[in-house]
Design goal:
With 214 residues, the chain is of the alpha/beta class. The chain folds into two domains: 142 residues, 3-Layer(aba) Sandwich (Rossmann fold), CATH 3.40.50; 57 residues, Orthogonal Bundle (Arc Repressor Mutant, subunit A). It is built from ten helices and six strands. A six-stranded parallel beta sheet has the order 2-1-3-4-5-6, sandwiched between helices. The longest helix is centred in the C-terminal third of the chain and has 15 residues. The radius of gyration is 17 Å and the shape is globular. 37% of the residues are buried.
Length: 214
């Protein structure tokens, strides 16, 4: 089961998104918020797998990129619904770690659910109007992101430590009280952020960066 934190400033929109998430057998709501600025703190408390974030045109400004950066340091998957998916803002959001950008006005319920599932699996999902804004985001520019923006979350560091102990996903899930499915998402995110191809390589790179002690 994938835990989702839902954020929307409009009460009606938030209620709709909460109902949408709860209606999916693969998703569960772990919390909700009306304020983008509080999401990073809530992520620390609730440990969601995905943050579903609705931003109106007036909210999708440069000041909220700072909030997105803070959220991206704490959770491996962010799905954004916005009025203007073509904007340059989209490119910056992707650089910060957002995994999906959809049109707030035209995205259907099944599209939003699919985007949440894909983002949790480490995939990137874009509305067709946002594709052009991605042209400047090449693999080389993504690799040049500051380390702080690609940092492992506290939960990912915890999982990495257990991997270093030689524990399998099922044992890690039991020890942390989460599903094995969620552990797989964390492991996938660890591999992506550390640019590792195996559990052994992830442990080695994590130790070199001082994230864990061997």
């Amino acid at each position: 089961m994938i835990g989702v934190l839902v954020t929307a400033t409009d009460n009606i929109v938030r209620a709709g998104l909460l109902a949408l998430v709860n209606a999916s057998p693969d998703l569960t709501v772990v919390g909700s918020s009306v304020d983008v600025d509080t999401v990073a703190t809530l992520v620390e408390e609730l440990q969601p797998d995905v943050v579903l974030l609705e931003l109106g045109l007036q909210d999708a400004g440069s000041e909220n990129l700072l909030s997105l950066g803070a959220i991206a340091q704490r959770v491996s998957a962010i799905v954004v619904l916005t009025d203007d998916p073509q904007a340059e803002w989209t490119t910056e959001a992707l650089r910060l770690g957002v995994r999906a950008v959809l049109s707030r006005s035209s995205a259907q319920a099944e599209e939003i659910v699919a985007a949440i599932l894909a983002a949790a699996a480490g995939l990137v999902v874009l509305h067709s109007d946002a594709v052009d804004s991605l042209l400047g985001v090449t693999p080389s520019t993504v690799r040049e992101l500051p380390t702080s923006l690609m940092a492992l979350t506290p939960r990912e560091i915890e999982v990495l430590g257990m991997i270093a102990e030689g524990l399998g996903n099922k044992t890690i899930a039991r020890r942390l009280g989460i599903s094995e499915h969620t552990v797989k998402f964390h492991v996938s995110s660890i591999f992506t952020k550390l640019n590792a191809k195996s559990r052994t390589e992830a442990v080695t790179l994590g130790a070199r960066q001082g994230l864990i002690m061997l």
